[in-house]
Amino acid sequence: MRELNYDNCKWITQIPNLSGLPNLQELSFRDCDNLITVDKSVGFLDKLKILNAQGCSKLTSFPPIMLTCLENLQLSYCSSLHRFPEILGEMENIRTLFLEHTPIKELPFSIYNLIQLEMLNISECGMVQLPSSIVMMPELKEVLIFGPPKQNQGDEKMNILVSSNECLYLSYYNISNEFLPMVLTCVANVTKLDLSYQKFTFLPPCITFLQSLRKLNLHKCDYLREIRGVPPNLETLSATCCRSLKDLDLTVTDLPANIYILNRLILDQCKNLQEIKGIMPNMELLSASNCTSLTNSCRRMLLNQELHKEAGNMAFCLPGSRIPGWFEHRRNGSSISFWFRNMFPAISLCCY
């Protein structure tokens, strides 16, 4: 037998001894509402490739596993499973691991045996303590921790050791002003950080210490009022729909003169944004549509030809209907025509 399916069996309470099925490749007992235990033999099925226990709401424990062929392990929505199983040896075929909507509070040190793991999703799990061994997982690039804490509002204990990872998603995690600096000290080598849907009111100056950070997403941080500096090597900053944002300071003091890194700035729908400081003349994308509260001096700065002429393939979107004076050719209608000789000219195009 190669496939065994117990899905939606409401009466089953235990997965029996399966050592007599050494060729089993797929085992699924998804949504078995009354399942409580799994026999330890399941953890030693050498040829098993798929193991699906999703939605077993009464499953309280899972035996240690040594499944060298396993490619897919699904334990999401096991709402009574408080511990992730020990991994007894190297398992090199699992690339993604989904544990969302489980009450798991701590991952075992042995998780580093998932040597090819690239993405770990522990969303909606509350506060999960990641082991120090996570830095021994060189292929792990993304850690997803979407969702607000399930503990008390004031309890913000979180251990994020992701120094070797590339991407960290912390959307909806309800990080406070006081706790945010602690989070930022734990992500020193992250290159992509998503802090969308948070409730902190300012981005602290210590974010400038994240020298590996290349992309920062702050979408719909409704209470964010200030951004007090950006990391020196940041290339993309997206802070769309931040309805309380008023001041944005992009000044970077640690870079040599004439070295500009940030080249993509997206601020759409920040309706209370008034001032943007520190924009450098190398922007490839500058979008501030519906930012209707920008001061006149800020608007003039954003429309200044000097800001755009060095950028090359520049795209920018700003509020209002006034066409900058340095646009030499204007035409109403759906098309535009012009003469050129030898080399196609660089174009700035304004459509409204």
UniProtKB/TrEMBL annotation:
<dbReference type="InterPro" id="IPR032675">
    <property type="entry name" value="LRR_dom_sf"/>
</dbReference>
<protein>
    <submittedName>
        <fullName>Putative leucine-rich repeat domain, L domain-containing protein</fullName>
    </submittedName>
</protein>
<dbReference type="InterPro" id="IPR058546">
    <property type="entry name" value="RPS4B/Roq1-like_LRR"/>
</dbReference>
<keyword id="KW-0611">Plant defense</keyword>
<feature type="domain" description="Disease resistance protein RPS4B/Roq1-like leucine-rich repeats">
    <location>
        <begin position="67"/>
        <end position="248"/>
    </location>
</feature>
<dbReference type="Pfam" id="PF23286">
    <property type="entry name" value="LRR_13"/>
</dbReference>
